[in-house]
Amino acid sequence: MKHPITIELGANILALSFLGSRLPANVEQKIKDSLRYNHKTFSRQTYGSDRSNNCPISVEVRNLFHFDHTTQRLIASIGWMHHIADIVQSCGYSVEVFDREEPHPSVDRYTTDWSLVFRRMSLRARQDEMLAALDSRDYGVLKVPPGVGKTFLITAYALAKPKARIHIITDGIDIVDRIYKLMVKFFPNVGAVGGGRCRFGDRITVISADSLHKVAEGFNDYRDPKSPDVVFFDEVHKASSPSIMANLLKYRRCRRYGLSANFGDRFDGSDRALIGIFGEVVFEMSYQEAVALDLVVPVAVDWVDVSASSQSFGNLKDYPLERAAIYLNDERNRKIADKLKSYSNDSQVLLMVSKVQHAVALQQFLPDFRLCYDQCEDYDKLVAAGLIRPELDPKMTKKLRDRMRAQFESGDLRKVIATDVWSTGVDFVGLSILARADARDSRIMDTQIPGRANRIHELKSCATLIDCYDGFHPNFRRKSLNRKKYYDQQSWNSLNWPNSGG
Q: Distance between CA 286 and CA 292 in Å, rounded?
């Protein structure tokens, strides 16, 4: 019988050895091969979020392991535990695990009482399976479509673990506030970190990812209120920046879970590095399955045909091209406006763009739409030029943005043009018509933006997504085709797709 391969756990890492020395060559090579990924970057500076086909991409092979030549051990992040164990066993070896950490003094911190959930919540289809998948491992990722109820699941988990201190991390102060407002309905003394606040709750604390550096030093001391037993990262695909990952790696002796509809969709491939922190996907649901289970509504895509243009954009590149061909393209903006006007004037409509200047340009054709954005450095200049009416759209503040979100959620506000500040983390249950004018082909945006309109509502059987077939320029035609390909994969029905669209 083969001797077992030893996995030693300590801090946030695991170390592999065989009989106190180096792993068998075939096992070591197989593990190393699986812990590499191709990290992609654009090799020259571009402007804005749009890049042309001519922009070179550089690929760097990155290792997610380290070999300790002194001890002859292979080192990896602890989230790879189950993955590595599966490889070892596939090679015919058993696994022997040693936890080198001292026993945690709070032995009952993971005590589970599911009755506490059922007393206060009604779970929808398969949400019990999602919770069970999380509870089955110390690390894991839920990959489910927007609208399935990720924040609801975090709340249910927290109810079921009455002794656990829990951190909920998310990207953006607006989303921190939204999650905080939900948590205070279920838990007393909820804490919030970010946006000038740094207060920890008795059990639950909601933290902005950008503020992790303010609290990370207390993560190693279980007596410190900054040290949690469980960490959730909402929209975990956003956690891969070097600064955020460095602070996440300071979390020790706690369970870590990620939630996202787009785990694995990052262009740079850095989702692979996040597995070391949060583990692998433990539960996955397709959009088609979510529709079949009545968790979200189906989506129909109503295409605006922008195949022709009276203006040539062939000599422009990168950001000037996007500015001229998309933001300030009156023909395109007018066609989008005409499409929106073809729907009932009583309909609630959200029009999504990537830049404030595009929102302002579109508003000239849609004067009854309000503007929602994060910041606008040129606000005063736009007012002076007569492009923004301050009596309709005063200069944006967080307080005003919060009020607009509440008004849109309640249905009191019916027509809005918004930037990416509303692309995630908002819950517009009654919204059924959403338009995209941003012209991007990001898998993440192709999921998140339509997800603002897919919530179940008694007066809504389907969500309508309005998008543009930009056949007037090869770069934007390619992006349109990529978006359609992704929509087709979700089984979203395309309406008015032009014959010239391929």
A: 10
How many angstroms separate the CA atoms of 242 and 274, rounded? 11
Tell me: do 304 and 407 sit in the same domain: yes
Average pLDDT of the chain, as a whole number? 91
> What does the pLDDT average to over 142-166?
96
Residues 350 and 459 in one domain: yes
Cβ-proximal residues to 114 (8 Å cutoff; 6+ apart), any chain: 160
Distance CA 245, CA 253 (A): 17
Q: What is the pLDDT of residue 501?
A: 63
Does an H or E element contain 88, and which? helix 81-90
302 CA to centre of own chain: 25
Within this chain, do residues 387 and 467 fall inside the same structural domain, yes or no? yes
Pairwise CA distance, residues 473 & 150, whole Å: 38
Does residue 313 have a pLDDT over 60? yes
Q: What is the pLDDT of residues 20-66, one digit of tens each?
A: 999 999 999 999 999 999 999 876 544 444 444 456 789 999 999 99
Q: How far is CA 275 from CA 74, 106, 162, 236, 381, in A?
A: 17, 27, 27, 10, 46
Cβ neighbours of residue 107 closer than 8 Å, sequence gap 6 or more: none
Is residue 33 domain-shared with residue 121, that is, in the same domain? no
In a domain, residue 109? The reply is no
Coil, strand or helix: which one is 401? helix
Residue 330 domain flag: yes
Q: Does one domain contain both 330 and 245?
A: no
- Nearest-angstrom CA–CA distance, 306 and 304: 6
For residue 89, being part of any structural domain is answered with yes
Q: Report, as an integer, the average pLDDT of 266-274.
A: 93
CATH number at residue 489: 3.40.50.300
Whose structure tokens read 């030093």?
217
Q: Where are the beta strands (DSSP E) in 118-165?
A: 139-143
In a domain, 216, yes or no: yes
Q: Which residues of 444-454 are buried (b: 16+ CB within 10 A; e: fewer)?
A: bbbbbbbbbbb
Give the separation between CA 409 and CA 400, rounded to whole angstroms.
Answer: 14
Find out whether 335 and 303 touch, Cβ atoms under 8 Å: no
Which residues form the domain of 447? 297-501
- Integer angstrom CA distances of residue 165 from 33, 151, 233, 279, 377: 37, 17, 14, 20, 40
CB count within 10 Å of CB 243 equals 11
Tokens matching residue 192: 């919030």
3-state class of 419 per DSSP?
coil
pLDDT digit string, tens, across residues 115-133: 999 999 999 999 999 999 9
The token duo for 212 is 């992790």
